[in-house]
Amino acid sequence: MSELIIKAATLLDLESGELVPGSSVRISGERIVEVAPGRRITADAPVLDAAGRTLMPGLIDAHVHAAVTTLDMPAMARRPSSRIGIEAAGLLEGMLRRGFTTVRDAGGLDRGVAEALDAGLIEGPRVFRSGRVISQTGGHGDFTPAPDEPRLCACHIHSDWFARVADGADAVRRAVREELKNGAHQIKIMASGGISSPTDPLDMVQYTAEEIRAAVTEAEARHTYVLAHAFTPEAIIQAVTAGVRSIEHGNLLDAAAARVMAEHGAFLVPTLVTLEQLAEVGRRWHYPQQSIDKLQHVLSEGEKAVHLALDAGVRVGFGTDLLGEAHPEQSRELLLRARVQSPLDVLRSATAVNAELLGRTGELGAVAPGALADLLLVAGNPLEDLSPLADSGAGIDLVMRGGEVVSSRIAG
User: Fold this and answer.
1) Shared-domain flag, residues 200 and 322
2) Helix ranges (DSSP H) in 358-404
3) Looking at 269, 303, 330, which one is the last position of a domain?
């Protein structure tokens, strides 16, 4: 098993919030086996000199859509799956080079891309895949146009590349079972109206408590959990009380809903950057006008929601939710979140908090013995300035995933 020692690093201890110069880390295979804060490790192994750079865990993005490869939603619906897979591979590689060594795909990424990553056929972060989202008819995952003369049948589920549209608790249960059978790591449901979907008002509460509980029960049977797209307090409260583990977006969160989230131990995963980018570049890439109109209702509310969640004691993770041509702005979420939190707390959200959300505390988001060697060497002090991380990874001099250096600007 190959070993590597990183020496002369300034170790970022995210738990204490301190930087420890002159630190070393020893890696064996894909895991960290020894951490020496403030001292050098002596062992018979190759040595990489960090030359004082900041050593920190790889970042975790808990809300990506690697398979949504264009903002032109009608074109997306017509795009062949083979092309989507090729485009998704390029997007995932970009995420890794920006320092995101782990991502949670929140809907659309198929098993084939995940298998190609695992087999080393393509390069990208570690992926926790949600498979197809679960949506009610006319919900946020239902992108079929409303027909003038709908042809109704007795079936309760229909599927496309992105969603299982399922109505009723039994149909939801079946849809969830199919996604888990197909290798989904967790399940995504749509619990409120959304911006991109064509036929649902933004403030619509979607699914009943019974339907949500059916999804939660099936996920728990496989020892996993449900995340829910939700904007409004009503939708958030219904989802959380039915057992949903994380609320995605949550822009219209109020203090009462935040208290309920805290009481139930639910996470909030804000996604500020996607709203900013949709407002700035959506029209240029043919993002639907009706979606741009919906966007205005939530655009300015995201930072307020983060404040409310933190004040209530909700654990706040880190996500981006970028689509298509906006993906290169992934790292900008760090700067947007720094308007609400300290740089240290932003980095904790994108490492330790997200690791807890994924059920991988101690394995991801940490520089510690036994953790996977997902590491970054960064120029400067990220506790004072996140911009080296936020400029598409321009200040990241080395990216390591599972003990393998995948990107390096360090000589020798």
Assistant:
1) yes
2) 387-390
3) 330
